[in-house]
Amino acid sequence: MSVPLSWYLILAAALFSIGLFGVLSRKNAIAILLGVELMLNAVNINLVAFWRYLDPSQMGGQVFAVIVFAVAAAEVAVGLALIISVYRRRKTVVADEIDLMKW
Amino acid sequence: MTADRIIFILCAALILASGLMVVITRKLIHAALWLVAALFGVAILYAILQASFLAVVQVVVYIGAIAILFIFAVMLTRREMLDKGAQTRSNWWLPALLGFLILVGLVFLILGQPAFAQPAAALPAGIDTLRSLGTALISPDAYVLPFEVASVLLLAALVGAVYIATGKKE
């Protein structure tokens, strides 16, 4: 384990930035959710790396990562259900065209 | 340059290249498959970090469930915008600039902390991380309440997802 902690943090920062770019630049709503998944994974890398490098006897980092897994699964299930429901009614998956509630 | 540094660099290259392909590739089904590659790289990272349970959960939950859910959703909605027009907004350079600035700022902050430059200490002898994770998840003086709240959240979200995705009965 000669890899310094900063390498993991920089990798997670890069993955987070890529995910942020995907969320903000893609038109397709499903592609936006793909970007959100990348960002959640970047957060998880950070949590597990801090757990391993700072105090492996405290399990808080891993427990939080498990909770992030559960939240990610819930987010994807609800998000994709909403997208499929919108697609069934409006025949579109473009985020810009889903503007019924736009003021 | 020791062996674990080389493994880390290969793994990071896999994750970043796949992640980049996820956000720039045109066909959405390919983006979902690149996401599988990126998630697999993250699972390797968990294995390197000796978080064995999380590495298995990453493969089972993320690749086995979430990525497959994405592929199903892409297939159900794929006739739209498959080969017409751009897949990204016209002002895509603005998010690219924002992401780059955030990355530069974070790298600057991380490299400025001398505590982050140290390699990891070896795991203390006699500590079983898998056993202590299981104990922490169900112990009343540790994390049983957040764990149960997360399970209730997951149940509610899945019930809601089934309700939303089911069409109106004719």
Task: Give the key terms.
heterodimer, A: 103 residues, Helix Hairpins, elongated, B: 170 residues, mainly alpha, Four Helix Bundle (Hemerythrin (Met), subunit A), 6 helices, 70% helix, globular
In short:
The complex is a heterodimer of chains A (103) and B (170). Chain A is mostly helical.
Topology (elements, then pairings):
The complex is a heterodimer of chains A (103) and B (170).
Chain A: H1 5-25, H2 29-54, H3 60-90
Chain B: H1 3-24, H2 28-48, H3 52-76, H4 93-111, H5 129-138, H6 144-165
Q: Could you explain how this protein is built, in words?
A:
The complex is a heterodimer of chains A (103) and B (170). Chain A contains three helices and no strands. Chain A has helices at residues 5-25, 29-54, 60-90. In chain A, helix 1 packs antiparallel against helix 2 (29-54) and helix 2 (29-54) runs antiparallel to helix 3 (60-90). The N and C termini of chain A lie far apart (54 Å). Chain B folds into two domains: 1-79, NADH-ubiquinone/plastoquinone oxidoreductase chain 6, subunit NuoJ (Four Helix Bundle (Hemerythrin (Met), subunit A), Up-down Bundle); 129-170. In chain B, helix 1 packs antiparallel against helix 2 and helix 2 packs antiparallel against helix 3. The relative contact order of chain B is 0.06. The interface between A and B is large, with 73 and 93 residues.
